[in-house]
Amino acid sequence: MKPIPLFNLKAQYQSLRAEMRRTVLKALDSGAYILGPEIRAFEEEFARLTGSPFCVGVSSGTSALELPLKAMGIGPGDEVVVPAFTFVATASAVCATGATPRFADIDAGTLTAGAAEIGAALTKRTRAVIPVHLYGRSSEMGPIMTLAREKGLAVVEDCAQAHLATWRGHQVGTFGDAGAFSFYPSKNLGAAGDAGAIITKSRRMAELLKELRHAGQREKRRYLYLRVGTNARLDEIQAAVLRVKLKRLADWTARRRKIARQYVSELKDLPIILPDLGVGSTQHACHLFVIRLKERNRLAEHLKADGIGTGVYYPIPLPYQPAFAALKHRRGQFPRAEEAANTVLAIPIYAEMTSADVARVCSRIRSFFK
Ligand SMILES: Cc1ncc(COP(=O)(O)O)c(C=O)c1O
Q1: Are both 9-243 and 248-368 of the same fold?
Q2: Predicted confidence (pLDDT) per residue in 247-285, tens digit
Q3: Which residue ranges make up each domain of the chain?
């Protein structure tokens, strides 16, 4: 039986091989490796595709989260609310500014932190919140923005898993002060290495981000350091790779959504919880297709025996991680994050997957319940 991995970067590369090699060689031949024409073009194209006035390319999704917090002056003594159930970078970006992450439990249905959970985590020190559009499902941005405006909080959206996801007709990343994207190779838009970007409506924020990623200096005024920055530039070769893939992102996302709908239709009568893919103008990016069931470890083994890949995103809620032990959280404090950590299972989804592959995964899952 042909293996069906959780995602398949080789299949994607094969479909683009000639164009990708041409583009990378052109970038190499150009001799312009830092802040060159490919980055500028990518920033314009990504801004246009996401419906955002400004885009700043950076070195990873992690720096895409850190830099806007730093640009807003968030630092020691401040708190930033993040979900208890997300990839570690959402919280470590807060620590990198010197501020403290304050964890919010998640909603049991959406697996994202909504206005109610974020509201319960606020203190006098809270300066900002980072909603995470987990697996490609947008957080409930309307109520979150209302709460943020009422409390005077900054909002940085973690869009690392949610390229082109929408909430009521608007793309994720366009609601808050900044939207942070990762182009880690397995993301819906992935580079050939590490890369990220920030979108924002604010010209001033975009200028600050450009200075911060470039050692604190303006591109046209070298060796005058306006602030303490870092080196977090997107590099030219990655920008060239991203431009080749960006042209396909809408089609790939449409294909992912079709696969997700096939999964829902073939699995809906089984005793598992399926993701809500959204309706109308609220659309999932289908980065991961995550089902929930108590026997998830046994199902993972059952699928593995047939060459089908699975993944657990994420097995331990962040408040219980050793890295955050200083915050002194106890098991039981984030019950819905714990429940999710114990039951989630990602099954294969990538644009090159055929409907026969999807059907095979479904029939193997069905056989588990027989
Ligand atoms: C939700 C989330 N936030 C942040 C990141 C960090 O992105 P990167 O790995 O590009 O630094 C990732 C990706 O791994 C992610 O999934």
Answers
A1: no
A2: 999 999 999 999 999 999 999 999 999 999 999 999 999
A3: 9-243, 248-368
Cα torsion for 204, 210, 213, 218, to the nearest 10°?
Answer: -110
CATH class of the region 9-243:
alpha beta
Q: What is the model's pLDDT at position 1? A: 84
**Closest residue (by CA) to atom 8 of ligand 1?**
61
CATH of the domain spanning 248-368: 3.90.1150.10
Residues with CB under 6 A from ligand 1: 60-62, 86-87, 89-90, 132, 158, 160-161, 182, 184, 194, 196
Residue-wise pLDDT tens digits, 22-73 = 999 999 999 999 999 999 999 999 999 999 999 999 999 999 999 999 999 9
Structure tokens at 260: 């997700």
Cα 350 to middle of ligand 1, angstroms: 18
Cβ atoms of 312 and 303 closer than 8 Å = no
Query: What backbone phi and psi angles, to 5 degrees, belong to 81?
Result: -80, 130
Nearest CA to ligand 1 atom 10: 61
> Which tokens go with 132?
């995470």
Using most ligand atoms within 8 A of CB, pick from 95, 182, 235, 290 the residue to mutate for ligand 1: 182
Q: Are 180 and 157 in contact (CB under 8 A)?
A: yes
Give, in order, the Cα–Cα distances in Å from 148 to each of 237, 275, 283, 334. Answer: 38, 27, 23, 22
Distance CA 208, CA 212 (A): 6
Q: Which atom of ligand 1 lies at the shortest distance from residue 93's CA?
A: 4
- Widest Cα–Cα separation across the chain: 69
Q: Amino acid identity, residue 25?
A: L
Question: Dihedral, CA atoms, 134, 6, 297, 112, nearest 10 degrees?
Answer: 0
Q: Could you tell me the distance, in angstroms and rounded to a whole number, from the CA of residue 63 to the centre of ligand 1?
A: 9
The whole-model pTM stands at 0.98
